[in-house]
């Protein structure tokens, strides 16, 4: 532990705004200290063992995009940030011993809700919703300890600000003045810049994405995509742009083998949803790949493998004989067990095309058009 941290570690857990927030205990726990954005130190205890035994609180956390949708028409904003928000929530006396942790000076336990408990976010969000519930999404938004007051006129703004500050004072919730902004027309909130012009990306966050080191592992790639994906709604065709840069290049186009005679190799396709004429609303298109000659066979809808096979025998086999090969799409009719068995008895081979594959029944598709 750095020498500069030791003093903070002794002083930090004991008091907060003149109120005791930790006391000595005998239950051993290991603690870690993390730096805050203003270079102060914040306690964070490893509570993974405790969290594994905790029944999770299912209180819903607000969706950032849904919160930002409420700001339409607002012109004046105030942002409030609570000072060590979790530490303003008292622990239930019967649960204090569960928060015990260890420092270089001895053992302590929290009297206030510490960081690291799995239910701390839900508990704190529930508290803030209860405090500001009458005015939520009317002129105030709350996302954990970040409070945003928004108003359309200056008079409304002053009234809204008094209401919110009065509620915070009533419930003894304290803000950190250095992180607050009052009566501004543009403010940074939840990673976005909010102004009268609307919601935009925060330049500082964009620069952080730009300066992010090149990922060297699968885990690093997932981390970067999660970071960049936060702004995906601001990037047109975000998913397509990402995929287009990482797909394997297409290989050489492979054409179908050249037919050697008429009605030896054919292609089939269906045209559906046509106007019903004499009880028929489907056309079975059969194309000879050598001569390009087509047969258009009307069928009733719904059709079955048996009815298609009967029409094929009547209009194709009777006139041209049994083909050697047949190209068709992956229609359920042709992939059925019955049709495969029928092809085996006829001595013909059924080739199924793949989606987005150049070796397909293109001639029958062109004939349909």
Give structural notes.
The protein has 369 residues and is an alpha+beta fold. The chain folds into 3 domains: 3-201, Reverse transcriptase/Diguanylate cyclase domain (Alpha-Beta Plaits, 2-Layer Sandwich), CATH 3.30.70; 202-245, no CATH class; 265-368, 2-Layer Sandwich (Nucleotidyltransferase, domain 5), CATH 3.30.420.10. The protein is built from 11 helices and 19 strands. The strands form 6 sheets. The chain has a 5-stranded mixed β-sheet, sandwiched between helices. A 4-stranded antiparallel β-sheet has the order 9-10-6-11. It holds the Pfam family RVT_1.
Radius of gyration: 35 Å
Strand portion = 15-25%
Protein structure class: alpha+beta
Low-confidence stretches: 9-17
Mean pLDDT: 78
CATH level 4 superfamily of the largest domain: Reverse transcriptase/Diguanylate cyclase domain
Shape: elongated
- Helix count, DSSP H or I runs of 4 or more residues: 11
The count of β-strands is 19
> Roughly how many Å apart are the termini?
76 Å
When the domains are counted, the total is 3
Approximate helicity band: 25-40%
